[in-house]
Design a protein that fits this description.
heterodimer, A: 236 residues, alpha/beta, six-stranded mixed sheet, four-stranded antiparallel sheet, 7 helices, B: 292 residues, alpha+beta, Alpha-Beta Plaits, 2 domains, 10 helices, 8% strand
C-alpha cells in the first residue's frame, strides 16, 4: 500500500509543488494520475520512489516511510519498485540486454539467472530479436518497451510510469498501455501519470486528478481538442 | 556479475575519456620518473658523502718545536677522545716515506732536509664525520699545547653536505608539486568521467544502486591510471639507467634494484591513483546530483 498523509512539497523557495496531499493506493490497483503539465504529477511519483522527500507530511510505501529513511533504505525501496519514464532513461551506449539486466546486476544476481530472466522479459515485450542492439538505435516505442521490461526485472510490487506515452505515437502508446495492463493483471500495482486523456478514456481504472499541486475532489470533466470527456466516469 | 559490471564500466570510462586519461597517465609517468630520479640522485650523493666521510682522515700537525713529552701528552689527550676510531702517529721519517710513495721523489733530494712535521692521523667514528663535529674537534685539539694545525678536507665535506641537503629539499619540494599535479589531473579525469556518465549514474540511482557500485568504476579508473603511469615510469627509469647513467658510470644497479624500481613506481602510482579517485568521486557524484 502507498499512502500520502498531509504531504506538502516545496522546491527551494518555490512553495506548493504539492499542497496537503492525502491519498491511498491499494496493492494491485491500476491508478491513473491525470492533470496538465506542472500540476504536480511527476512530483507525486518522485515521492513514491523517494527521489525527493516531502517538506512536510509522510509518504509510506509498503514498509518504508519517508519520515525516517536512510539512503541505504531508499536504495532498497527502489530495488522493489519499477519506474518507467517519458524519456525512457535507458543507457544509450549499452545493449538492450544490458539495460534490462542492470537492476539484476545491481542486486548481484548470478550471470546465468540474469541471462535466463532477461530473455523471458524481452520475449514478453517482443524485443528478444533486438537484445544485442544498442538502446540508442531503437525506435521510441521499442525504447519504452525496453524500459518496461527493465522495470519488471525485479518483479516489483508497484510499477510507476511517469508519462510513459508522452513521446510515442498512438500505436506505440496503445502497446505500452496494454503492456502495463498485462503487468497489472498479474498482480503488480501500476501508477501511471499521463495527460493523454484520449488513450485512457475507455479504461476502467481509478483516476486521481491534479491541478496546481492539489488533488481535486469529485467528478471532473476535462476539455480535450474536439471532445469533452468525463475522466472520472469509471472511477471505482 | 557485479564484479564484471564494475570492470566493464571502468574500461568503458577509460576509453570514453581517453584524451584526459592519456594526459593523466603521462603526468603520473613523468612525475614518478622525476621523483624517483631525484631520490636516486640524493641516494648517490649521500652514499658518496658517506664514503668520503668514512675514508676521511683528520691530520693533527704538531709544532716543529714540540718536545717528545709534549707529543706524548698530545697523544694521551687524543686517546681520551671516545669519538676517535683509530689514531696513528706519523713521524718525520714516516711522513717522508709517504711523500716518497705519493710523489715518487725523495724529499731530502729536493730540499736537503725534511720539513715535514710530526703529525697524528686520526680517523673518527663514522657518525662523527660531519662538519659540525669536525669544527668542534679542530678547535679543541688546536688549543692543545704543541699542536700547530688540525687539517681535514672541510670545504669538500661542507660542499657535498650542502648539495645533498639541497637535492633533498628540492626533492621534497618537487614531490609536493608533482603529487599536487598528479592529484589535480586524476581528479579532473574522474570529474570528466563522472560528468560524462551523470545520466547513467542517475539511472543507476533510480534503480537502487548503492554508493559503492556507483563509485567503484571511478576508483578503479584512478588506480589503473596510476598503475599504467607507474609502469611507464619504471620503463623510463630502467631505460635511463641502461643508456644514460650506465655510460657515465654514475650508478651501477643490479637486477634487484630493477625489481625495487618496478615495485616502487607501480605501487606508488596505484596508491596515488586509488587515493585521489576514492576521495574525490563521492564529492563529484554528490555535487552533480545536488544540482538536480
Amino acid at each position: 500500500m502507498i499512502q500520502f498523509r498531509q504531504v506538502t512539497v516545496n522546491y527551494g523557495y518555490v512553495p506548493g509543488a504539492l499542497k496537503d496531499i492525502n491519498l491511498q493506493m491499494h496493492d494491485g490497483d491500476f491508478t491513473l494520475i491525470l492533470g496538465p503539465t506542472g500540476s504536480g504529477k511527476s512530483t507525486l511519483l518522485r515521492l513514491i520512489y523517494m527521489d525527493i522527500l516531502p517538506s512536510s507530511g509522510v509518504v509510506t510505501v509498503d514498509k518504508w516511510s519517508s519520515f525516517r529513511i536512510s539512503p541505504r533504505q531508499i536504495n532498497r525501496l527502489r530495488r522493489n519498485i519499477g519506474v518507467v519514464f517519458q524519456d525512457f532513461k535507458l543507457i544509450d551506449n549499452m545493449s538492450v540486454f544490458d539495460n534490462v539486466a542492470l537492476p539484476l546486476v545491481i542486486e548481484g544476481y548470478r550471470r546465468k539467472y540474469i541471462r535466463k530472466l532477461v530473455h523471458v522479459l524481452l520475449d514478453e515485450v517482443n524485443l528478444l530479436q533486438s537484445k544485442d542492439q544498442r538502446a540508442s538505435t531503437l525506435s521510441l516505442g521499442e525504447k519504452q518497451r525496453v524500459a518496461i521490461a527493465r522495470a519488471m526485472a525485479k518483479n516489483p510490487f508497484v510499477v510507476i510510469a511517469d508519462e510513459p506515452t508522452g513521446n510515442l505515437d498512438r500505436e506505440a502508446s496503445k502497446n505500452v498501455l496494454s503492456l502495463l495492463e498485462r503487468i497489472n493483471r498479474n498482480g503488480t500495482s501500476v501508477i501511471m501519470a499521463t495527460h493523454d486523456y484520449e488513450l485512457i478514456k475507455e479504461t476502467p481504472y481509478k483516476r486521481i486528478y491534479m491541478e496546481n499541486g492539489e488533488v481535486l475532489p469529485g467528478d471532473r470533466t476535462i476539455n480535450i481538442p474536439n471532445k469533452r470527456i468525463n475522466i472520472l466516469a469509471n472511477k471505482e | 556479475m557485479k564484479f564484471f559490471f564494475v570492470i566493464k564500466q571502468t574500461f568503458s570510462n577509460l576509453w570514453r575519456e581517453r584524451t584526459p586519461v592519456v594526459a593523466t597517465i603521462l603526468t603520473i609517468c613523468i612525475a614518478l620518473t622525476i621523483l624517483v630520479a631525484l631520490f636516486e640522485i640524493s641516494f648517490v650523493l649521500y652514499d658518496q658523502l658517506r664514503d668520503l666521510e668514512s675514508n676521511m682522515m683528520v691530520e693533527v700537525y704538531l709544532d716543529p718545536s714540540a718536545t717528545d713529552s709534549q707529543v706524548k701528552v698530545i697523544q694521551s689527550e687524543l686517546e681520551r677522545y671516545p669519538t676517535i676510531e683509530r689514531l696513528r702517529f706519523v713521524s718525520k721519517e714516516t711522513a717522508a716515506a709517504i711523500f716518497n710513495e705519493e710523489f715518487g721523489e725523495n724529499i731530502m733530494d729536493i730540499l736537503d732536509e725534511n720539513p715535514l712535521p710530526v703529525s697524528f692521523e686520526v680517523r673518527l667514528l663514522r657518525e662523527f664525520n660531519h662538519s659540525e663535529y669536525l669544527a668542534l674537534f679542530k678547535t679543541q685539539v688546536e688549543s692543545l699545547k704543541g699542536v700547530d694545525e688540525v687539517h681535514y678536507r672541510h670545504a669538500l665535506i661542507e660542499k657535498l653536505e650542502k648539495v645533498t641537503e639541497a637535492v633533498a629539499i628540492a626533492g621534497i619540494f618537487v614531490l609536493i608539486i608533482l603529487v599536487f599535479a598528479m592529484n589535480l589531473l586524476i581528479r579532473n579525469t574522474i570529474k570528466l568521467s563522472v560528468y560524462a556518465k551523470r545520466r547513467q549514474i542517475d539511472i543507476m540511482k533510480i534503480l537502487g544502486a548503492g554508493n559503492l557500485l556507483i563509485r567503484m568504476p571511478y576508483i578503479l579508473e584512478g588506480a589503473i591510471e596510476g598503475f599504467i603511469g607507474g609502469f611507464l615510469s619504471a620503463i623510463c627509469l630502467i631505460f635511463a639507467h641502461k643508456f644514460i647513467a650506465g655510460s657515465f658510470a654514475l650508478v651501477e644497479i643490479g637486477t634487484s634494484t630493477y625489481k625495487v624500481l618496478w615495485v616502487l613506481t607501480i605501487s606508488f602510482g596505484i596508491l596515488i591513483g586509488f587515493l585521489t579517485s576514492a576521495t574525490s568521486v563521492g564529492r563529484f557524484v554528490n555535487k552533480i546530483f545536488a544540482k538536480k
